[in-house]
TrEMBL record:
Source taxon at top rank: Bacteria
Protein name: Enoyl-CoA hydratase
Matching PANTHER family: DELTA(3,5)-DELTA(2,4)-DIENOYL-COA ISOMERASE, MITOCHONDRIAL, ENOYL-COA HYDRATASE
Organism: Lentzea fradiae
GO molecular function: delta(3,5)-delta(2,4)-dienoyl-CoA isomerase activity
Length: 255
């Protein structure tokens, strides 16, 4: 359980997120994901990274229970910094990062996906930012890389989800496949990239980042400032607790 990585054939590194049941990642997990991704890029044997997940969905975002259990703002600051570090690690990784998304991809999951180079998704995948409903703000920077501006605003204000098929329509998801074929589909693209000259691919990644019009690190940290402001006023705490109370009620009804 946690963050693991493995080298496969031809310089392909697979990094797996595994925090049952929904991959709500604790603050330490975000830092570990950043370390694994950065380390993969720094390894001269690496040619491409595949970021994937186990469990019911790709990522449910940060672990809200960890924040609610803590007193003061240490857990919130750790989660904010951890997310920023992990998102930046995906964006700045010296080799291309392919994400394989299944099930739900929420909050911090969108941050990871929006900073990746290539997105493959299963036909049951959905993407969304529930931040407004949780008393937080963030990852609009990354959602804006996946959908057009006005759709991004609609999704952000309403906390609605959007399907993998919609993202494929807009060109941000390269391929939508049945769940059982997801890992294989990501590996096919990874193998294709791995056959290229690694020096050229690494230069290409640096060059593409260099011409990117959006300074993703700064804009995301700007968003996080409003999250902290909402926490200082107590708005976020009430919103998180309302969600957790509702989640407990839903689990009880399911049982």
């Amino acid at each position: 359980m946690g963050i693991s990585s493995s080298h496969t054939e031809n310089g392909i590194v697979e990094i797996t997120v595994d925090y049952p049941p929904v991959n709500a990642i604790p603050s330490r997990g975000w830092f570990e994901l950043a370390e694994a991704t950065t380390g993969a890029g720094e390894d001269p044997r690496s040619r491409v990274v595949v970021l994937r997940a186990e469990n019911r969905g790709f990522c449910a975002g940060v672990d809200l229970k960890e924040i609610q259990r803590s007193t003061g703002y240490d857990a919130l600051i750790a989660a904010n910094r951890g997310c920023a570090r992990a998102f930046a690690a995906v964006y700045d990784c010296a080799v291309p990062v392919i994400v394989a998304v299944h099930g739900f991809c929420l909050g911090g999951g969108v941050g990871l996906v929006g900073n990746a180079d290539i997105i493959v998704a299963s036909d049951d995948a959905t993407f969304g930012l529930p931040e407004v409903d949780r008393g937080a703000l963030g990852a609009a920077t990354h959602l804006a890389r996946l959908v057009p501006q006005h759709l991004m605003r609609t999704l952000y204000y309403t906390a609605r989800n959007v399907s993998a098929q919609t993202l494929h329509h807009h060109g941000s998801v390269i391929e939508v496949v049945p769940r059982a074929r997801l890992d294989d589909a990501a590996r096919v693209i990874a193998k294709e990239i791995a056959t290229k000259d690694p020096a050229v691919i690494r230069a290409a990644k640096e060059a593409i980042n260099g011409i990117d019009p959006q300074r993703v690190h700064r804009s995301y940290r700007f968003e996080q400032g409003f999250t902290f402001e909402l926490n200082l006023t107590g708005v976020s705490d009430h919103a998180r607790q309302a969600f957790l109370d509702g989640d407990h009620a839903r689990q009880a009804n399911d049982g």
